[in-house]
Amino acid sequence: MSAASPTRQPKRIKARFIGPLAITLTFIMCVFAVAIYGIETSIRDRDLAERSAAVAKLFAQKLDKDTNLMLATLHAMMANGAMQEAFRRGDRAALAQLGGELFRSLSSAHRITHLYFIRPDLVSLYRFHSPAEFGDEIQRVTLQQAREEQKAAHGLELGPMGTLTLRLVMPWRQNGELLGYLEIGEEIEHLLDEIRHSLAIDLLVLVDKRYLTLAQWQRGLDLMQRSGNWERFGTHAVLAQTAEQLPAALDERLLRQLLGGRAAEISDFGRSVHLASVPILDAGARQIGELVLMRDITALESTFQWSIVAVILISLLAAGVVLGIFYLALERVERDYRRQHDLEHQLLRLDSEHRRILQLEKLSAVGTMVGGIAHQLNNPLVGVVNLAQLAEREADDPERTRELLREIRSAGEDCRDFVKRMLGFSKVSCFEGKPTPMAELIEDTVLLFRQAENRHLPVEVRLPEQPVVLTVDPILIRHALFNLLLNAAQATADGEGGIEISLERGEDKERNLPGWTLAVTDHGRGMPPEVMERIFVPFYTTRSDGTGLGLPVVQHVALLHDGQVTVASEPGHGTRFAIWLPDTV
Ligand SMILES: Nc1ncnc2c1ncn2[C@@H]1O[C@H](COP(=O)(O)OP(=O)(O)O)[C@@H](O)[C@H]1O
Ligand SMILES: [Mg+2]
Prior knowledge:
With 585 residues, the protein is α+β, with helices and mostly antiparallel strands. Helix content is 52%, strand content 22%. The protein binds adenosine-5'-diphosphate (ADP) and magnesium ion. Residues 483, 486-487, 550 line the site of magnesium ion.
């Protein structure tokens, strides 16, 4: 007996889903973390780029502001008639006296570090910041520009001391006559500190070594009383810095990266520093160096790291919750699945047991049949043997012998009849269907039944008003109906009532087929359940003279017509046998 692998284990749904789900969630989390990292990095880089732009702008603004201040100062000086006269005369003593006080106050209040009177031939007449030096020709770019264009010229200039100075030169004309040039200037170092304070950024001024000699640079350092390392960068020298110490990682390679316009991030004694650079142009529009921006982003970085850790933790938590919910849901699904699987398993087992029982039933039916046949044949045969013995013994009495022989023949005839009935039973399988008016068939059978049944039990026939014609084998149906009538009569004692035959519409509910129900109802003794269970088994009978073949024949006939037999019985009240026949066979 084959059952669809009832022992197979139910599939582990949880294991199948949770793994891939966990992998998917992890993947999503990784993508999320990488995206957050990318966004934060780009925000940080943009912030630094904005700060670099702000530094460049602030630097230019401060230079402009100071230039304007210097311009106003020079205008004020030019308005001084006495000074004008002294300049025209080339009177150094008068100039020193007239401008000395002004220079001191400019230098203390506004960090003005240079103030010159220069003759039209560009030879210095008086240096307020270094009165002893004079008579030398000055060749600075700002002065050249002022002479060529005959108007004010300004810009940053790298001085001989290796210092960066903002200079403003103005031609001084009087009634169309050029008296000479006024030059004013300031060291820009204090600007760096101002920028540092406004933008919280450290600055480093680097000058291209092509525009500076080691001696100049050294002199500048001595002047400022600072120490420096000329060799630190191959191409550039450090001119000024706001930080006390430069990061160790800021080397030649990193500088080249900055000069290439790329920002960099380094760590310096546990601090994170972000670097970028802005070019410095002098008055002649030459790129003489770089302003390197150094921003301490340690706090920003740690906020950044914390936010990533927080995002990852929150996503982990969310993923855990999602996994948990899924786990519970799958647990339920798996439980239902397992229950269903167990049910199927049980059903399969029941089915196989049912088949086994059917098999046993069949075997027991065969046993009953064989027993029935043996019993039916045994009785007359025992009689034949006994009678033959008797006849042997009483062979002298011809009369008696003849009588015994008659009885022997009668027993033999019983056997033959029985065998004939059996043969009749086997013939029931020949089926010849033809359209048959059912009313006539029923009437004929009732007539036949009345002849065979001598108790004259009343038989009531109930037929539909319209004639019913069914394609059936009339001989077989008549035979079946006759058997049912006979059984009904045999079950009905005198005075228990009559028999009813009915033909009415009915349908096979299971197959949803229309058809007709031919029923025989009696009010006799009925059947207990244990009898009802076995009535269709061939040779099963409760009557001493019964054959047990009537109902099997009825069932066989119904099946040949693609119909079925149903029975309802109540002990003591009666029985109803119904043959259902489909509309067309
Ligand atoms: N109408 C009925 N009322 C009560 N019992 C019945 C009825 N029809 C059949 N039976 C029972 O079914 C048994 C089998 O019937 P059947 O196959 O016709 O064989 P038989 O009539 O030879 O006994 C009967 O012995 C009887 O016990
Ligand atoms: Mg019978």
